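User: I'll paste a sequence; please echo it back and then give the predicted structure.

Assistant: Echoing your sequence first, then the prediction.
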Amino acid sequence: MKKFGINFTNLIVGILLILLGIFFCVGNTELLTKIIFITIGLIMIITNIYPLVESINNKDNMSIIYHVIEIVFGILFI
């Protein structure tokens, strides 16, 4: 018989997402939506700063434009 292992990271993330879904159903969705957009905006900004610096060092114009646009979208999300 095969043993089934439990990946606790997936279990915890699944439980948190279920709780988030329940909160969306019964809670203040406007506040939660603002928090999610701010989080997405910050992630977009943070994840594009280092590639932007690398693109500037490599003088890759298309990559610079792409990362600047991504950072601007992150600011707009906030």
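Helices lie at 8-26, 29-58, 61-77. The radius of gyration is 19 Å.
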